[in-house]
Write a structure and sequence with these properties.
Largest sheet: 5 strands, mixed
Radius of gyration: 14 Å
Number of strands: 5
Structural class: alpha+beta
Strand order of the largest sheet: 1-5-4-3-2
CATH topology: YaeB-like fold
Shape: globular
Number of helices: 4
CATH superfamily: RelE-like
Number of domains: 1
Helix content: 25-40%
Order of helices and strands: EHHHEEEEH
Distance between the termini: 34 Å
């Protein structure tokens, strides 16, 4: 599975996670990235067999629990082309405030606030 874009994960850890938790969150995201990157799921059922706690929202949208469900990762997957697109990442509390079927990627969410215009 080709994952787009790792920079979103790195930006989230660097700019949105409390400094005391960064190493732990980064380790959990790296573990997810490594496992998903090696995968070659043909359909949501194969994904679910590997990641039992993942929530299949639609034929292409999936929510992964990160760090014991402290964080949620929303992705879009094209199983035919083996591409996984990171759409949204945040705390479980933030996740409860979004519509997972409609949430869209926002580059600014993961950017360094001190580099904002």
């Amino acid at each position: 599975m080709r994952i787009v874009a790792r920079s979103t994960l790195n930006g989230f850890v660097k700019n949105r996670v409390d400094s005391r938790l960064r190493a732990s969150v980064k380790n959990h995201l790296e573990a997810w990235y490594a496992e998903a990157g090696k995968a070659s799921w043909k359909d949501p059922a194969e994904l679910k067999a590997q990641f039992r706690s993942a929530s299949i929202v639609s034929g292409e949208r999936v929510v992964f629990n990160i760090k014991g469900n402290d964080y949620r990762l929303v992705v879009a997957i094209n199983f035919h082309y083996q591409i996984l697109l990171i759409i949204w990442l945040g705390t479980h509390k933030e996740y409860d405030k979004i519509d997972v079927t409609k949430v869209a990627y926002e580059k600014e969410r993961y950017a360094n606030p001190s580099n904002s215009n």
